[in-house]
Specification:
alpha+beta, 4-stranded mixed β-sheet, 18 strands, Uridine Diphospho-n-acetylenolpyruvylglucosamine Reductase, domain 2, 5-stranded antiparallel β-sheet, Uridine Diphospho-n-acetylenolpyruvylglucosamine Reductase, domain 1, 9 helices
């Protein structure tokens, strides 16, 4: 276990933003993770958990407490059952499952971050979510001061949400269990229209696993969503805003605003959600509100490849990014009456 003081946090995040940590601990075993968390809790010391740093916006003042970077390793495959240590690099784990001929997470290739973060956010992309394959999550319960195992149902997954996200100060994920599918080298049914079109197949059809992964990586790279230190379009936290899910009355009011602003022939993206609600596209809203790719003149700008990514062009501060995020959020609200919600976790700052 390594320990540093007044340690820079920006290099630990994909945004390359944020001030220093008073104390930074890197844990390589579950016991070290639990020991560090328990000591901080009993000592009343503020604690920040960091994995791959792909979903964090840390304030310029840094973090006045202990930052725990989880660097545990472990990839255990038993038939179609997979167990990942929280610190495993997610995109590497996906590649290994494809190499093993197992389907279920191949369309989540290229997503930066660690395996332990995936259940917290219920990570999803291109028609797949981890909630469909996770069987259990082993976590340290800070309230009970014991290690617990939560079933899929107990994780309370929903769109980009979970029990862990709802109660962020209670659980520290240690290991994640998945049940994948042996489909004789074939992918899971391709659900996402863009992926299906790119592969030249119909939605619901299967393709070779490796081909599905490669196509997703190609699509993500085209949107600046595969990390590249030389490409500032990838210096982001991925999608900065979640796709809004609207109640029936909200959706009708939203449609009226769209037709007033863009004309009665305009039809925003609409996808059925639970309880009669409708999910629409944050990227569509941002673009139609006037915030197009590359928007901005300062050190923080919208990606030139994807309107959902707010990027550090190399010399930004966190406050630069937040100023841009507020401008986009407020502009969408003014144009369409819809409130965008940030997807990354805010540390010491707020929109």
């Amino acid at each position: 276990m390594q320990e540093l003081h007044d340690a820079p946090l920006a290099p630990l995040t994909t945004l390359r933003l944020g001030g220093p940590a008073r104390r930074l601990v890197e844990a390589t075993t579950d016991d070290e993770v639990v020991e560090t968390v328990r000591a901080a809790d009993r000592g009343g010391v503020p604690l920040l958990i960091v994995g791959g740093g792909s979903n964090l916006v840390i304030g310029d003042q840094g973090f006045d407490g202990t930052v725990l970077r989880i660097a545990t390793t472990g990839f255990e495959l038993d038939g179609t059952d997979l167990t990942l240590a929280a610190g495993e690099v997610w995109t590497d784990a996906v590649a290994h499952t494809v190499e093993a001929g197992l389907a279920g997470i191949e369309c989540l290739a290229g997503i930066p971050g660690s395996a332990g973060a995936t259940p917290i956010q219920n990570v999803g992309a291109y028609g797949q979510e981890v909630s469909s394959t996770i069987t259990e999550v082993t976590a340290y319960d800070r309230r009970a001061e014991e290690t617990v195992v939560l079933t899929n149902a107990e994780c309370a997954f929903s769109y980009r949400h979970s029990r862990f996200k709802a109660d962020p100060d209670r659980y520290v994920v240690l290991r994640v269990g998945f049940r994948l599918e042996d489909a004789n080298g074939q992918s899971a049914p391709v659900r996402y229209a863009e992926v299906a079109r790119s592969l030249g197949v119909g939605q619901g059809e299967r393709v070779e696993l490796a081909l599905a992964r490669e196509k997703v990586l190609e699509l993500r790279a085209g949107k600046g969503m595969v990390l590249d230190p030389a490409d500032h379009d990838t210096w982001s936290a991925g999608s900065f805003f979640t796709n809004p899910v609207l109640e029936p009355g909200q959706y009708e009011a939203f449609l009226a605003r769209v037709h007033d602003r863009l004309g009665p022939e305009s039809a925003p993206p609409a996808y059925p959600a639970a309880d009669g609600r409708t999910k629409t596209s944050a990227a569509w809203l941002i673009d139609r509100a006037g915030f197009t790719k590359g928007y901005g003149t300062g050190p923080a700008r919208i990606s030139t490849k994807h309107t959902l990514a707010l990027t550090n062009r190399g010399a930004a501060k966190t406050e630069d990014l937040l100023t841009l995020a507020r401008e986009v959020r407020d502009g969408v609200r003014e144009a369409f009456g819809v409130e965008l919600v940030n997807e990354p976790v805010m540390v010491g700052v707020a929109l």
